[in-house]
Design a protein that fits this description.
Length: 178
């Protein structure tokens, strides 16, 4: 949960190297981490997103935030530090429309498992678990992918990815500007 006021930061766009490599594990749980998480919530809200990974605001750290509904419509507002994604045994995929704040202006259908959960730590180093269904399950997978250097467009066929990235390059950014 957000504990202090955050300042929105600009959203990092596809192509920035911080988005294309695995983020560093968090080892220090201090005021700076709490401020980062507050800034991430503020950045996500300014960009009208439902999830945001630290590298999407240029920070190389294994942290993401969500403000996203599950399949029942219950909104989950949470953060996870050093998340580990857990997927169901039977990995039937649900195909649905997906977008990304770092690839503005475009969306594409992506198959993902209908349920997922993440384990990790909160901003104080206390273990947490978030169980997701519906859009929340997709969000948990999407944000964990970010922290591993993978964007949803990287899951698409090369030709489709290239077209989407070309269209996105012409789209205005989201959230606050630098």
């Amino acid at each position: 949960m957000q504990t202090r006021a955050g300042t929105p930061r600009p959203i990092t766009r596809y192509g920035n190297p911080v988005l294309h490599r695995r983020c560093a594990a968090v080892t220090v749980f201090d005021d700076d981490l709490q401020q980062l998480i507050a800034d991430m919530f503020a950045s996500m809200a300014a960009a009208e997103g439902v999830g945001l990974a630290a590298n999407q605001i240029g920070v190389d750290a294994q942290v993401f935030v969500v403000d996203c509904p599950d399949e029942t419509g219950t909104n989950v507002v949470a953060h996870v530090v050093n998340p580990v994604l857990h997927l169901p045994e039977g990995r039937g995929l649900e195909v649905d429309d997906e977008g990304c704040l770092s690839v503005p202006g475009v969306r594409a259908e992506v198959g993902r498992p209908a349920t997922a959960h993440v384990t990790g730590l909160d901003m104080h180093g206390t273990p947490v678990r978030i169980d997701g269904t519906g859009l929340l399950a997709r969000c948990l997978q999407h944000e964990t992918d970010h922290l591993n250097g993978l964007l949803y467009v990287d899951r698409l066929p090369a030709k489709k990815r290239k077209k989407l990235l070309a269209r996105s390059a012409e789209a205005p950014g989201v959230g606050v500007t630098a």
